[in-house]
Amino acid sequence: MKAATGYLFIILLLPVFFLLAYFSSKEVRSFDTFDHVIEKQIQLDKTNLSQTSLVKDRNGETVLEWYSTVNRIILPSEDIPELLREVFVLSEDQHFYEHIGFDLTAMGRALTINIQSNGIEQGASTITQQLARNLYLTHEQSYNRKLSEILYAYKLEKTYSKKEIIDLYINSIYFQNGAYGIEAAATHYFSRGTLELSKAELLFLAAVPNNPTYYDPLTHFDRTKARQERLIDLLVKKDKLTASEATEIKNSPINLTVHERVDQAPDYMTYVQNELSQLIALSEGLTDEEQIDNRVKEVLASGISIETSLDQSLQNRAKTAVSDNLPFIDVEGSVAVIDHTNAQILALVGGKNYQKGEFNRSFQAYRQPGSSIKPLLVYAPYLQETQSSLSKTVNAGELCIGNYCPENYGGKVYGNVTLERAFANSYNTPAVRLLNEIGVETGFRYLTSFPFKKLVAEDHVLPAAVGGFTYGMSPLELTGAYTSFYDGGYQQPRAIRKVTDLQGNVLYEWKEEKKQVWSAETVNTMRSLLSETISSGTARKAHISRVTYQGGKTGTTNNYQDYWFVGLTDTLTVGVWVGRDMPSSIENIEQYSPHLYIWKAIMSQ
């Protein structure tokens, strides 16, 4: 009885509203029309339905269907089957093509039936009202909302054609289990597009939106099938189907093939999300974090395709390499794989059992680099500044500069050694002497060629030569810097190639150019040093066969808290970090050299 009274209240209120709108807008010599009042008061400022966005790998395969709660794929008007339009109009709003957004006759009929049954047997919402509710309003059960729904529906009818409204409706309605719109429903329940469905399958899906929970195809299949057959009978009654067609459709099998949401490579996708924010912010000149977050959500909801450089084979290989070589409790690892010929990030491992939403060590962990910083801060700058040969000798003996007295590994003293030997065996005192010779600021001038986010002024001291930094760097940052030893140039590695709309129009892409850091002579000499480290130095266990070139540098931090290895071949630069999230000694696993074997397992294939 309460619901019936509500409908009666709304019906009686409409004429009153029209009169109020008329007289309240009357001025001394003129007045606004009702349409003008609605035009000013009701703003249709967001008729774009949110859509599912797609992230694709380097081969164009979908890796992630990106949406929060609304899984929707907009189906163009020309691809919507006429049968769907007919069945929704006949079952939901038979006067759709005659009314102006609301149907007073239907509201009166619903009122009569509801009064007789002392309950809610029939509703009176038109298709346009349902669309208005889906686009602009909530599903709150109140008379204010119902009146707003009517006014918005009226405005929709004044703004869009009937065909546009029914097509928006078909793309907006809920089909249960997170699927909004017919295309998402077809994909979810049948793993096929709408145009690939039979009439029986289309009408089966058309049975769901009337009451998505009650007609859930996965939990109440029989109910959905029974309503499908009632819809078929209605189509026959209205001469939209013949009796023989109806029988054939009813007897057609309905075999659900549920499509599971594509959500692969969480390590890599977490970084893509981070990089997308950077790309949009840079492209649109945004700096406020809240503004950036809102804009990213808006772009994703519009339905975009994000083309990435992800190599799924390499990604899987890197994940396996980390898990296979780190059986130790609480010991974690991360990997960054970069194609240095084009600055594309091919794979990222955020942890040995990384799950979406967790701390991603590949780009969020900042750790001391140990000796892995020597090529970038000491040796390459020294060679660039002095053009020295590798046969030049440097003292690897004891050293004190002021109160700073670094030691070689194990406290050993070696005397004068060549640059090649000092580098390959990662002696510490020679590195400090070389940085001191060219000047700390000179070394850091080269280091700031790379986007190490957490470098601070306090880092500009001699202990930095052996990895003593305030915060350190992430595996992705350090690996990216090593790509400069391919040809002397540096371009920040990126995961995203370009972002397009679902029609293929480019929306965003990086427009960065490579800058030269090292001379060709410095690169050649550094590649020789890096190669010697693998062939006879501290990275011998990482040696692989059947490659034209391989080189790299190890790094171990104080108290054995971190193990690093960054190495490169002709096409790839790969960085590996091993340690605990809460830094503590892992000296007990040093003999296993997991960082070297992870690198080798990735590169051997």
In CATH terms, what is the fold-level topology of the largest domain? Beta-lactamase
Strand order of the largest sheet: 2-1-5-11-12
Structural class: alpha+beta
The helix content, as a percent range, equals: 40-55%
The count of helical stretches stands at: 23
Distance between the termini: 74 Å
Shape: elongated
> What is the fourth-level CATH superfamily of the largest domain?
DD-peptidase/beta-lactamase superfamily
Percentage beta strand: 5-15%
Strand count, sense and closure of the main sheet? 5 strands, mixed
Number of domains: 3
Query: What gyration radius follows from the Cα positions, in whole Å?
Result: 33 Å
Q: Give the C-level CATH assignment of the largest domain.
A: Alpha Beta
What is the arithmetic mean of pLDDT? 90
The total strand number stands at: 16
The CATH architecture of the largest domain is: 3-Layer(aba) Sandwich
